[in-house]
Each structure stands twice: as C-alpha cells, then as structure tokens.
Amino acid sequence: MDNNTSSFYKVDRFADIEVLRYKVPGFEDLPLKQKLLVYHLSEAAIEGRDILFDQNNRHNLFLRKSLEHIYTAYAGDRNCAEFRAFECYLKQIWFSNGIHHHYSTIKHKPAFSEKYLNELLDKTAFKGDSSLLRKIIFDANFDTKRVNLAEGEDVIATSANNYYRNVSQKEAEDFYAAKQAGYPDGQAPSFGLNSRLEKDADGNLQEIVWKSGGEYGEIIDRIVSHLEKAAIYAENDKQKQVIDTLIDFYKDGNPATFDKYSILWVNDTLSKVDFLNGFIETYGDALGIKASWEGIVDFRNEEATRRTRTISENAQWFEDNSPVDARFKKEQVKGVSAKVITACMLGGDCYPATPIGINLPNSNWIRQVHGSKSVTLENIMQAYAEAAKGNGFAEEFYDSKDDLEAWYKYGFLTDVMHTDLHECLGHGSGKLLPGVSQDALKAYGACIEEARADLFALYYLADEKMVELGLLPDMEAFKAQYYHYLLNGLMTQLVRIPLNERIEEAHMRNRQLIAAWVYEKGNAANAVEWVVADGKHYLRINDYAALRKITGELLAEIQRIKSEGDYEAAKNLVEKYGIIPDPVLHREAHDRYESLDIAPYKGFVNPVYTVEYDNNGCPADVKISYDEGYAEQMLRYSAAYNK
Ligand code: ZN
C-alpha cells in the first residue's frame, strides 16, 4: 500500500462516520525493550473493550454478539439493500461501543425491517433470545438515550447506561454525598468511580465493584496479566511503580489506590513510553461519578517535544518583542513545555473515536497538589489532516490554486505551530495591572483570553524569528495559516452553528472576533476582500504584511483590555465582532458544505503489533502493520478479547 496518499488513511465510510487509520512514526526505531513494553500495554488497552460495551448498556454485549453471529454466518445475498443496511447498523454499533450514538447518545435507528431480521435469524440458526433482540433493536421507547441530561428529569432513572439499576437520581446523589462527608472539600477519593450502584430486593443500595474477583473480574485479570508482562520491560523504577500500583487498584478496587496511581503517573515525566488504562472519564454518567473504561498507549514525539521546548526556552524574547504596551508585559515569563505524543494503541472509550488532546488526572485535588499531564496526539492530528486532503472542502472554499497548494504544503505544520505558540506562550504572556481581578471581564473573559492566546500565536507565526529558530521553513508558511484562520473564522466554522443561531462557545467566538476585526481593518486598507463568483464568496488576501500588522494592533488592544480589566471594552468587542454570524456567509457555508458529503464524525482502526521470536523462543522484534480493515478488526477483537 502507498503510505503517502490520503487513501492510506481512509478505511471505511458508513452512516455519519468515516473510519481512518493512523501511522505510528518512530515505532520501528524504538529499542526492543520499549517495543515490548508498548506491545504488552497495547494488549492491556484492547482487553477492556467489553467492559465499555457493558457499561454503556446492559444489553450491548448480547446485541453485538447476536449481530456478529448473523454477520459471519449468513450465506445469502450480502449485496441487497437490506443486508447492506444491516451491515451499516452493525458498523454503527461497533463504532459507538453499543446501541447508542457515541456523540448524541441517542439509540441508533435500523434501516432494515423487523421482518428481514427474522429472516436472517432463521437462516443463521440463531439460538438466543430473539424476542429480546427485536425489542432492543426496534422498540424506540426502550432504552432510548444513553445519557439523559434534560433539566427537571430524573437523569439517572431515564439514562440507559448500565451504571445504576433501580436507583433514582436522589438516592444516588445522597449515597455519594454521604460517602464524601468528613473529607475536606474536594479531597475525597473518587468514590463510585469503578462500580455500579444498585438496589437489591430488600431495597438496600449496594455497589457492585469492577475489580479482580468482582464484576468484570475475568477481563480485569487479563488486563492485569498484560500489565504484569509490561512491568518486566518498564523503563525505570518510577514507571514500574506506576504499573504495579495500577495492578494494585485492579485487585483491591479501592478509589484511594487509584488516586495513588494517578499521583505516580503524573510524576512520571521521564519515561518515553506512557499509557492510560482504567476507569477515567465520567461523561457517560449524568452525575459525573462513574467512569468509563479506556486505554491509550503512546510514546513521546521527541522532535515535536524539542519544538515546544525551543519555543518555551525563548519565551522571554517573544514577550519582550510583542507589540503589547510595556506596562502589560511580564518582566520574567516562563514558557510551558507541552508534551507531544505519538499514539500507538487506542482502546475502550478512546476507540474508535478518540480525543486529540488529553489533560489528566481528573481529580481536582491531585491537580492542585501534584499538577497534571497535558498531551497532544500529533499523529492522530496528522491522520485527520492527511485524510481531509481531497475531501473537497478546501477545493470548495479556497479562492485560488496557489492558496490551496500553500494550505496543503504548510497547513498541518502551521496548525501545530499555532497550537504550540497558543499553549506554550500565549496563555502565559502578559500581566494584570495591580488590583485588577482575574474575573474582571466576567462572561467575556474566556473569549478574550482565547483571543489573546490565538493572536499571540498568529502574530509570531509571521515573525522571522520562527525561521531563525528553525520552527518554520520560510516566510511563506504563515500565509497558509492566515488564510485558513480568516476563512474559518469568517465563514467555514459556521457550518457547526445551526442557521439563525448565535455563536456561544468561547473558542468559536474568539475566532470570529479576530477574523471579523482583522477583516474590517484589512479591507479598509485593501489588504483583504471577498470576491464573489457564481454567487459564491471567496476570500482573497492581497497583502499579508498588512494583515500581520493589524493582528499586532488587535493583540495590543486585547492585552490592554485584559491587563486593565476593561469590562466595557471587552463587552463591546465580543458583542460587535464575536457573536452574530454574517447571515449570508452562514447560509452559504451550510449550503456549500452539505453538497460535499463529508462525514461529521471520524474514528480510527489500530495498527497490528506482532511479536517475532528467535530460535530460542525469545522475543526478537515487534512488527507493526497497517493492513487490517474495520470490520476485520472489530471481529478479531470480539473473538480474541471478549467477556
Ligand atoms: Zn486556549
């Protein structure tokens, strides 16, 4: 397979989903010991998949196994419309780790008939409970939504997840409030993180704990055995302690042990290989108490981490040379050196849909006392960018072939550089005047703060210092980001806002604010304009140097607003530029986007790792391959790592 085209990244397309694959650059160059560490941690990351299916809904595993039975056993026509609808449905179930959509959490609707399902069940000699299966799939009022957050409803009783049984919201809240009583505010261990709460026949509440010897005990024992093998290849004592303490947690099921593990994990900053494994994020529980199972394995991307180090080592230069008034600059600024990682394996709630950035642990008191780890999954970002090439999006919206080529050449590079500058320098730059409160800008504060960080990044992307430091190849690169940023802020990001609605989210507001302000000043100076052709708007930039200067002016003004706590100015700026989309561009963005048929949601298949042995039966190498398809991988996981 050609590894350098967008077709490498594209694996499958169904419903509202596109499945991609990601590369793991640098895996081949790891020493054998680290490869074996990655291998065993990866096995541990895949192993918990069925825990997540069962957490999401008590019928999910029965449903998946029944559908997989039909899918593999059916010998009839697999090309007819109804079978293809059945196949699409199964692919959706796999993707969302259960019957509810991974994002909306609403139950999937089958596009095949009950009659057709009966035919499939007959022809594949299905032995299970077919009436339950029909109820799960076709009864629209049964387990309708996985997580119900509707105000005024009992969010526990009406959510279809498997975290509570026969328990009301009030009972669950009281149960955990009582557990936390006696601990100083926010210092209690995360009680309830790894258990289901249910009421027994006598009406007593009890926790069914997910641990070795408890619920999911067999799967957890297999995870533990992979972790024990991984511990043999730990890079250092600290990392071995991290793994050992996680094993302790899986064995005792005590949330306090999980806190111990989290503290060790956050302090292990030297190991090259890193991982997450356990009950971590709580989005799947309306009360935010129960954590879904997930796993990720990764290693530090040295080149990218050098990049963020270079930026933060030069933090003072950037601060001193910014266009901001000297009164608002920090005399001593410290850059943050972000960690950039290469993901090697995604599991549980990070698979197939995955985050591109992670900031953990979630426990507030651990974050305050011990800090947190913030990482960017750069190879995942790269896969998104590569797969998007040729999806027609940029071709539809870009003004000229030159703009388009510049985007393909510099787009990804300047995207990550923009993020680095934003995170490592932007948020940390500048200072408040004495007596000004952090919260002076109230509801506008978040938007102004994001604008400040974005502007700092935009301003410096166009600075020769970036080329001098070896962070950008030339003085052309920034233009691709300027073009993209303005087009996105003025128009293309509006595809995510329903027509006639306002922009609410702080990052989206900040992007429109910057783009609209820079456009207004830039247009007056003939530096940028909208050109209309065939009834469509195309952004044309005539003078990048002028736009950079205008960007600096806005940065200076936003920093003044922040430093002085000028609420009225913040309000005027955000209200005038950041909130109301241009109605013509808004509608046009929707119309043009819809004609492209781009999947709104994306996820990934994993690479396959295979250990090779020498003549003595000792591991000699770990090979990575990228040729597994989506259904193929799902069926293999279901067969090899099941409950
Ligand atoms: Zn930010």
TrEMBL record:
Keyword annotations: Hydrolase, Metal-binding
The keyword Cell membrane appears for this protein: no
InterPro entries: Peptidase_M49
Pfam family, one: Peptidase_M49
UniProt GO molecular function: hydrolase activity; metal ion binding
Transport keyword on record: no
Name of this protein: Dihydrofolate reductase
Origin species: Candidatus Enterocola intestinipullorum
